[in-house]
Amino acid sequence: MMIRLNDLYLCIQGEGCLAGTPMVLIRLHGCSVGCPFCDTKETWANDEENRVPDLHQAQADPSKWCEMEASDVAIAASEIRQGAKWALITGGEPADQDLHQLVACLNACGFLVAVETSGTATGHMGAGVHWVCVSPKLGMPGAKPVLPEVVNTANEIKMVVGKPEDVTKLEDLLERSSFKGTVCLQPMSTNPEATRFCISTCQRKGWRLSLQTHKWINER
Ligand code: SF4
User: Fold this and answer.
1) N or C: which end of the chain has fewer CB within 10 A?
2) What are the angstrom distances between the C-alpha of 144 and each of 6, 136, 140?
3) 96 lines ligand 1 (CB under 6 A)
4) Helix (H) / strand (E) containing 40
5) 38: Cβ below 6 Å to ligand 1?
């Protein structure tokens, strides 16, 4: 099965419950959610003009992407993993693609697999993923609903918060779900006002604060 791939590299997870964990980050290409604050907008379009023949060329330019067999993606991840136990499939919106074969290949290579999704697609469900982080993108220009079945089965919800209304939207989502995992609030763009609001809300609700710690150490 072919996978649309934007990038692949060894990182330290900077956000959420698994922060501090070495991971091979597998950035898939394509997303139609349309978040205005997206910091990977170059992954959105599955445009032929930016399609390149191999991963090496895709890695040279954030807007470039390639197609690879799922088994070859897993081999490429294995080659750079050093001691990393985890592979993180992110995007773009990774769950727009059917991830079953990629996850199986990563598992066969001995990886634990984490997926980070906006909750708007189901390509990871039933694939044997070990950790699902839903970062719900509610009311975005792409008008894609956050799906209850994705939220209900997540291990973690990581909500990007720029203003109090974002927490109101999250509370509405939680009320409509049976989610039992960990809620993290992440200040948008490490904005000081949003950070103060996230701290006070986490203290009030017993949620976790997620900071983009990789940016402090100039990591991707
Ligand atoms: Fe960007 Fe993620 Fe929103 Fe897609 S879902 S637009 S990749 S932030």
Assistant:
1) C
2) 22, 11, 7
3) no
4) none
5) yes
Name the DSSP letter for residue 188.
G
Q: Is 93 in the pocket of ligand 1 (CB under 6 A)?
A: yes
Tokens for 30? Answer: 């394509």
**Dihedral in degrees, nearest 10, Cα atoms 161, 140, 4, 147:** 90
- Does the pTM surpass 0.90? The reply is yes
- Summarised one tens digit per residue, pLDDT across range 68-117 is 999 999 999 999 999 999 999 999 999 999 999 999 999 999 999 999 99
Contact 135, 160 (CB under 8 A): yes
3-state secondary structure of 101: helix
Report whether 83 contacts 22 (CB < 8 A).
Answer: yes
Compute, in angstroms, the gap from residue 83 CA to the centroid of ligand 1: 29
